[in-house]
Specification:
It is a single chain. The chain folds into 6 domains: 12-84, 434 Repressor (Amino-terminal Domain) (Orthogonal Bundle); 99-266, 3-Layer(aba) Sandwich (Rossmann fold); 282-367; 377-454, Arc Repressor Mutant, subunit A; 488-681, Tetratricopeptide repeat domain (Serine Threonine Protein Phosphatase 5, Tetratricopeptide repeat, Alpha Horseshoe), CATH 1.25.40; 731-839, no CATH class. It has 39 helices and 12 strands. The strands form 4 sheets. A 5-stranded parallel β-sheet has the order 3-5-6-2-7, with helices on both faces. It has a 3-stranded antiparallel β-sheet with strand order 10-12-11. A two-stranded antiparallel ribbon has the order 1-4. The longest helix has 22 residues, at 456-477. 46% of the residues are buried.
């Protein structure tokens, strides 16, 4: 253990600092606080182990109130080289045998390569590294990341930026050409400008080389030494940390060292999305900035324009912000457009190649980078990793084990080697669920390895089976209390689900599994508003020659629901009826009840109240027999809505009075309760109590928002708008109609759009915009005929009052003429008029 330095042993700076601290009654801790550094740094200054930078010397002068006429001498004393001061000595080890010739240089910065290009981005990483190396004075910091991610460039920038803040500066040592751990001291000595003499052990050489130094030592490309002789490599780093207290190590590697003293900084791709500046204005994405800068090196007139920005953004997204990938892509800017470059990247990995003579071989193409990474892996890692390439958009630990046979230990090893990334943590049912991902281009490389191993079909089948099982599980739960949580879970896996659908159906590998998967996803598609995607996949699945009545029945009913949402009523009725027949053949009361319910909802939309009531009553009887409270409440909701649409508010109230307690018992946040509240609100509104109706609609809106049911959100907004019209709050009505119009337009939901235009006509009349009101009234009538839609009795009441109001203001002939002009509007023109009203 080092003995405390006496006054006689102190360096000139140490004596000066101690005297000035005593004069101002400052402890080392108090001085450290004034100059914003650690106490250890002050101790190093006083003992001579480190010298302050110019900036730090000036801070010390300020903190110690050095007079102006003494300031220059103080700073000169503070900047004396460490070799000129008397250092503390230790007796814990024998003197090293190695001889250093010539003496160590006293320049502040030691032999740093000069980067050819400026560093772009990485502000957050630079700030973190400054904190670790300067403020916390960590002795071992490892900068880890995949090959080509920019570790070397960032480490070199840090060496130049922070080097002046170390008494002996910074040294940058490339280990790429070092074949054995024993050669590392020689490589360090070469950079420091000294020669190692004698044939002592490498660890003794390091003691002699670094024991008296106070510098930032960057060791670049450490990973291959870990592979070849990991124990010796780690021992050497531990030796430096333990026996060279003035040396701080910054190591770049694709793999962490797994040492207790190690501080990790993980480097990912550059940001591909704009960031907000201090004044709130967006800053260009770092990845785009790098791509533009490198493109200008080969094509000086290259510029980011509105015409090419989407393609450049696509390039950056495909490359996930990988700096080497961006540089390789930009090297083609002289020959190809950004659109062509993006297309080539999507086409294959080998496009990203560089013929530049000065580049290291492993950086001349992304394939070379991945080959280098591949060679550093163990045989077991080379067996497991390609199997993970079947996942898209990330995967869970459970899925990795089920599909690829990857254990937790193997995943951890791949994360340590910067091949796998931890992408996010989600709370599902109270359990933290970590997800992992691969770089998209690395996935291409590994897919080739999987093909060569002859495992591609087996692993992809296991992948499709895994996600079909997940979809099957979710399908049942989406009729229960945890619908929203299962929707979120499926949303996380949407890329994997799409990949499974593609492999089973589009590529034709397993039609039966594809039909099961598409049918299992139909409920989620319906609830998420992805109706066109659902129709495409379900139609493709049902076209397969698969004899599985239950799977076909579920897919048919799902297709019918989505066709209904898309206002394709004829197709909806055909597929729902066919699905009902198959469910009856299979003998599945739960799904027979559900299909009757869907047929009842469809008939209600088409204005066929008798057929709607018959199907809904049949559904209600089956759900009551099964004791399915959710089913009973859901059907009662719809029966109440049907009665509202016919104006039979007494019967509506009876149905809803039974449904709402059931829904509340099942959970306050259920979407079924929101449906009940909306239906009851319309009943109350029709009976003249707009204030109470507004409260019901607000509660429904909150539930739909929480559950992210956009169709329900739009329905609640249109109901609120009608209540506000009754109260006379036109501004709030206009706001709500604008919101529901935007949602229905995005969903392409014709019935919702027509109902909104009908309400907008009423709002325009209230605002004395009678010409617009008449035009919208004519458009609504024509659109109902064009799309075979029917207004509910409630909406008919709004329309009837509107027409009476128009006739009271305009002459009947004028009103009729204006409506006739409105009937000439197609849907886009009618919507344009509607948007103008809500924006006005």
């Amino acid at each position: 253990m080092a003995t405390p330095a006496t006054n006689a042993q102190l360096t000139p700076l140490g004596r000066l600092l101690k005297r000035l601290r005593a004069r101002h009654d400052l402890t080392q801790e108090a001085l450290a606080e004034r100059v914003h550094c650690s106490v250890q740094t002050i101790r190093f200054f006083e003992s001579g182990r480190r010298r302050p930078s110019w900036e730090m010397a000036e801070l010390l002068a300020d903190a110690l109130h050095v007079p102006a006429d003494e300031r220059e001498e103080f700073i000169r004393t503070a900047r004396l080289a460490a070799q000129d001061a008397t250092l503390e000595t230790t007796e814990t080890s024998a003197p090293p045998v190695a001889v250093l010739t010539p003496p160590m240089p006293t320049t502040s910065i030691l032999r740093l390569p000069h980067p050819l290009t400026p560093l772009i981005g990485r502000a957050a990483e630079c700030a973190l590294l400054e904190t670790l190396l300067i403020q916390q004075q960590r002795h071992l910091v490892t900068l880890v990341g995949a090959g080509g991610i920019g570790k070397t460039r960032l480490a070199l920038h840090i060496a130049h930026w922070l080097g002046e803040r170390f008494p002996d500066g910074a040294a940058f040592v490339s280990l790429a050409a070092v074949q054995r751990v024993a050669e590392m001291p020689t490589a360090i000595a070469r950079v420091l400008g000294v020669t190692l003499a004698g044939d002592s052990e490498p660890l003794e050489q390091l003691d002699a080389l670094l024991g008296r130094q106070a510098l930032l030592l960057v060791l670049d490309n450490f990973e291959h030494l870990l592979r070849d002789d990991g124990a010796a490599a780690v021992d050497m780093i531990q030796q430096i940390v333990a026996r060279s207290p003035g040396v701080q190590l910054l190591i770049t590697s694709t793999e962490r060292l797994r040492l207790a003293a190690e501080a990790l900084v993980e480097l990912g791709g550059l940001a591909t999305a704009p960031a907000a500046s201090v004044d709130g204005r967006p800053l260009p994405a770092e990845a785009l900035m790098l791509y533009v800068e490198r493109s200008r090196q080969v094509a000086p007139d290259f510029a980011l324009t509105p015409a090419n920005q989407a393609a450049v953004t696509r390039i950056c997204t495909l490359l996930e912000g990988m700096p080497l990938g961006l540089e390789l892509a930009a090297s083609w800017a002289r020959m190809l457009t950004a659109e062509e470059i993006a297309a080539e990247i999507e086409r294959g990995l080998d496009f990203l190649t560089l013929s530049e003579r000065g580049a290291p071989l492993r950086h001349r193409s992304l394939r070379a980078v991945f080959d280098h990474t591949w060679r550093l892996m163990t045989p077991e890692e080379q067996r497991v990793l390609p199997r993970l390439a079947v996942f898209h958009g990330g995967f869970t630990r459970a899925a990795a084990l089920e599909v690829a046979g990857a254990t937790l230990v193997q995943l951890a090893a791949l994360i340590d080697k910067s091949v796998l990334r931890v992408v996010e943590a989600k709370e599902e049912s109270g359990v933290q669920n970590m997800r992992y991902s691969l770089h998209g281009l690395l996935r291409q490389f590994l897919a080739e390895k999987l093909e060569l191993a002859g495992e591609a079909n087996a692993i992809r089948h296991a992948h499709a089976a895994c996600f079909t099982a997940l979809a099957e599980q979710a399908y049942v739960h989406q009729f229960g209390s945890d619908t929203a949580s299962w929707q979120r879970r499926l949303a996380l896996e949407q890329d994997n689900l799409l990949q499974a659908l593609t492999w089973t159906l589009t590529e034709g590998h397993d039609a039966r599994l594809g039909l099961q998967l598409a049918g299992a996803l139909s409920r989620n598609w319906r609830l998420s508003g992805e109706w066109r995607q659902a129709r495409a996949w379900l139609t493709l699945a049902l076209a397969q020659p698969v004899n599985d009545p239950a799977a076909r029945a579920r897919a048919l009913v799902g297709l019918g629901e989505c066709c209904h949402a898309l206002s394709d009523y004829g197709q909806a009725e055909r597929t729902l009826s066919e699905g009902l027949a198959l469910w009856q053949q299979v003998g599945a009361p739960q799904w027979i009840a559900w299909t009757h319910f869907q047929l009842g909802v469809l008939a209600s939309t088409q204005g066929n109240v008798t057929e709607a009531s018959a199907n809904l009553e049949a559904s209600l009887d089956l759900y009551r027999q099964r004791g399915d409270q959710w089913g009973v409440a859901t059907v009662l909701n719809q029966l109440g809505a049907v009665m509202v649409s016919t104006g039979d508010y007494a019967r509506a109230a009876r149905y809803l009075d039974e449904a709402i307690p059931l829904m509340r018992a099942l959970g306050q946040g259920r979407t079924g309760l929101a449906v009940s509240l909306n239906a009851l609100g319309r009943t109350v509104l029709a009976q003249g109590d707009a204030v109470r109706a507004s409260r019901l609609f607000e509660e429904a809106l909150a539930i739909f928002r929480q559950r992210n049911v956009r169709e329900g959100v739009a329905w609640s907004h249109i109901n609120l708008a009608l209540a506000h019209l009754e109260i006379g709050d036109l501004a709030m009505a206009q706001r709500d109609l604008g919101r529901c119009l935007a949602i229905y337009a995005e969903l392409e939901m014709i019935t919702g759009l027509i109902a909104t235009l009908n309400a907008l006509a009423a709002m325009a009349a209230r605002q004395a915009q009678h010409v617009d009101a008449a035009h919208l009234a004519g458009a609504v009538a024509q659109l109902c005929q064009t799309y075979d839609c029917h207004l509910t009795e409630f909406e008919h009441g709004i329309r009837a009052r509107l027409l009476v109001e128009l006739d009271s203001v305009l002459t009947p002939a004028t009103s009729t003429t204006l409506q006739r002009e409105g009937s000439a509007l197609d849907l886009p023109a009618a919507l344009a008029l509607g948007h103008a009203l809500v924006d006005g």
